[in-house]
Amino acid sequence: MQTKFVAKEDTERNWWIIDAANQRVGRIATQIAVLLRGKHKPSFTPNQDNGDFVVVINTAKMELTGTKWKDKKYYRHSRFFGSMKEKTAEQKRAEDPAFVMEDAVKGMLPDARLSYSLLEKMKAYPGAEHPHAAQKPQPWKVPTKKK
User: Fold this and answer.
1) Are 118 and 49 in contact (CB under 8 A)?
2) What are the Cα distances from residue 6, in Å, to 44, 46, 53, 54, 71?
3) R_g of the chain computed on alpha carbons
4) Residue 1: per-residue pLDDT
5) Measured between alpha carbons, how far is residue 28 from residues 9, 84, 97 in Å?
6) How far is CA 111 from the centre of its chain?
7) How much is the pLDDT for 143?
8) pTM of the entire structure?
9) DSSP string, 5-57
10) Mean pLDDT of successive 10-residue stretches along the chain, which has 147 residues
């Protein structure tokens, strides 16, 4: 028996849509990372881009637990002395709500060149409108924690 590897050109790519309203960032980010890598498919290969496209809507309405909106910090540095800038998650959400989700998903992807092409397949929008209706994205149900 031989292991079958699917070539990048032979991969079927689906479009999924995830509604982030009233959902926790980490729970959604893990599902997005799985979809982007293609781990939900039987043809998963770790060194190839077999994943699907993901459209995330309502990123302005997503949740962080506890006081993370005030405590979590994002840092920027231009490598010049004294240029380090920091913003809280609340300030970043006001500036660009999709950034918080993109950063969370980026942290869940492998640290390799492959992750750049994976991140390009994720499209995040602060509201419910998105320009990808022509691709007919199917809704992806994010499993919620049972109480």
Assistant:
1) yes
2) 8, 11, 18, 21, 44
3) 17
4) 76
5) 28, 30, 14
6) 15
7) 78
8) 0.89
9) ---GGG----EEEEE-TT-BHHHHHHHHHHHHHTTTSTT--TTS----EEEEE
10) 79 93 94 94 87 95 94 94 94 94 95 92 95 94 73
The Cα angle at residue 67 between residues 64 and 68, in degrees rounded to 5:
50
Q: What is the pLDDT of residue 145?
A: 67
How far apart CA 54 and CA 96 sit, in angstroms, is 18
For the chain, the structural domain boundaries read: 14-64+96-139
CATH topology of domain 14-64+96-139: Ribosomal Protein L13p; Chain: A; (3.90.1180)
Secondary structure (3-state) at 137: coil
Residues 37 and 102: their CA atoms lie apart, in Å, by: 15
